[in-house]
Specification:
Elements (H helix, E strand, L loop, with lengths): L8 E5 L9 H7 L4 E2 L11 E3 L12 H7 L1 E5 L16 E3 L20 H12 L2 H8 L5 H16 L4 H21 L2
Parallel strand pairs: 1-2, 1-4, 3-4, 3-5
Helix pairs in contact: 3-4, 3-5, 4-5, 5-6
Length: 183
């Protein structure tokens, strides 16, 4: 049986999606994550999943994630720059290259749903069962883990952000080489 993640998970939600399709809203309803109704209540030191962050999430973030939690910004990709600024004191981290499995963005790189982003973070930090638990909440969820398994395993073996970035570069080189070979 899959167990819930041991790391506290939060979502700062813009409430612009259909609640029936919003992965963060579903995880809040199922009590797998908490909605951050007030950013000031997020513990200082939490990891913020931010696609514009300079550092990638890695095992070096594990102690902070376990102590303070992980926050996902649940908003439309094209409105991210207008989303409320998250206060200082939080650790902004980007996710490395992954493919989306959600029905809206299936196969698109870096177009992850909030649930996929949280699951990827857990997996990279070493909580593979927690990641599997989150993805088990969606029909398409296990596909996210399976299509990204090689990448997620490589990233989870890295201790530092720079190593995750190097692993990502190796993965992207393989994809580029494969695309050239198919021509």
């Amino acid at each position: 049986m899959l167990r819930m993640p041991s790391i506290k998970l939060f979502a700062l939600m813009a409430h612009e999606d259909d609640p029936k399709k919003c992965t963060a809203a579903k995880l809040v309803r199922l009590k797998d994550i908490r909605e951050a109704t007030d950013i000031a209540r997020i513990p200082r030191g939490a990891i913020v999943l931010d696609p514009e962050a300079e550092k990638a999430v890695s095992k070096e973030d594990l102690a902070d994630a376990e102590r303070f939690g992980i926050l996902v910004l649940d908003c439309s990709w094209n409105k991210l720059s207008r989303f409320p600024k998250v206060r200082s004191g939080l650790r902004h981290r980007a996710l490395p290259f992954l493919l989306a499995a959600n029905p809206t963005n299936f196969g698109h790189p870096q177009r992850l749903s909030s649930a996929e982003a949280l699951a990827a973070s857990l997996y990279i930090l070493g909580d593979k069962q927690g990641a599997d638990h989150l993805m088990s909440r969606f029909k398409w969820g296990p596909t996210f883990i399976s299509i990204n398994k090689e990448r997620l395993d490589a990233y989870s073996e890295c201790e530092k952000s720079a190593e995750v970035v190097q692993a990502q570069e190796r993965m992207l080189q393989l994809i580029t080489r494969s695309a050239k070979d198919q021509r």
